[in-house]
Design goal:
The structure holds 2 protein chains of 2 kinds. By secondary structure, chain A is α+β, with helices and mostly antiparallel strands. Chain A has a domain of 88 residues: Roll (Thiol Ester Dehydrase, Chain A). Chain A has 3 helices and 5 strands; from the N terminus they run βαααββββ. Chain A has a 5-stranded antiparallel beta sheet with strand order 1-3-4-5-2, covered by helices on one side. By secondary structure, chain B is of the alpha+beta class. Chain B has a domain of 103 residues: Hotdog Thioesterase (Thiol Ester Dehydrase, Chain A, Roll), CATH 3.10.129.10. Helices cover 15% and strands 37% of the residues of chain B. Chain B has 3 helices and 5 strands. Classes of the chains: A alpha+beta, B alpha+beta.
Amino acid sequence: MSATTTPMPIKPLALQKGDHGPQATIGPITRTDIVRYAGAGGDFNPIHHDEEFARAAGMPSVFSHGLLSAGLLAQHLARWVGLAHVRSFAVRFTGQVWPGDMLVLAGRVARVEESGGERLAHLELTVTRQTGDVAVKGKAVTVAR
Amino acid sequence: MTDTFPIGTELDEFPLPVESSKVREFAIALLDDDPIYQDVGAARAAGFDDIPAPLTFAAASSHFRHDLLMFERLDMDLRRVLHGESSWEYLTPVTVGERLLARRRLADVAMRPGKRGGDMTLYTFETEFVNDRGDTVLRQRDVVIETGGAK
C-alpha cells in the first residue's frame, strides 16, 4: 500500500494561515505492519508483537508503536511540504492504535510568520482513528514562500 | 525518580549509520514507497545530494543504543514506562553515506500527580546527532513517563 500519488514539492509551498493539507487514509493497520516497523525501527518491546504478553499486561491485543503512527504522519508531512523544508516536527502520543484501525492523516496551517527574511509556516497535524479518537497530535514548522 | 543523575548528565552515546538499505526498509515500514528513499537518481531529481533520511529516521538508532540499560541505571520500572512525546529539530539535511554520532543526556525530570493516583515522573531526554565534520545535524527530545505505583 502506498499513499504516494504526487512527487514531493521541490520548492517551498505558498502556505497561508487556515490552509488545509492533503488528507490520506491508511490501513487497516495489520500485525505485519507493526512487526515490520519493529524491525525497521529496532523497538522489540513484546507488547507490540507478542499477543500473550500484551494480554498478560491487561491489553486486549498487541498495539502499534507510537513512533509508527508518528512516522506515518512525518512521511505525510514530507509529501505535503517537501522533506527538505521541514525545520521541526513534534508529536504527542494521545491514544493507542490497534490492529484493524484505519488512520486518517491530516494537517493545516495554524499560522505563518516572517523570521530572519524567510516565511515559516506552523502546522498542526493529526493521526485520527476510525472511532474519531486522535492517536497522535503533531506540530511542525516548515519553510514557505 | 533518580537522585544520582542530576539534570544535564550525559547518559550515553551511540552511532547512527545512514545506510541505503536501512533507509529503504524504514521508509517502506512507514508505508512510503516514494523512490527518493530508494533510488539515488530519483533523490537527485528531487533536489537532494543523495537519498535522504526520513524525518523520524533517528528512531532507528534503537538498534545501536541500550534503552533497557539506561532505564535500569535511572532506576525506572519498565512495566510502568510510556512514551509521551517526541520531537525533532532539523538543522542540516541527513543523507545516505553519513555516519552520525549521537549523545544523549537527561534534560529534565519532573513529578506530576497521575490521573489514577500516585505521582508520575516525566523524564526528558535530549539527543544530539553530529556528523563526521562535527556539525550538529539533528536534535531529538523524548518525554518518557513513568506512571505512579509502589516501588
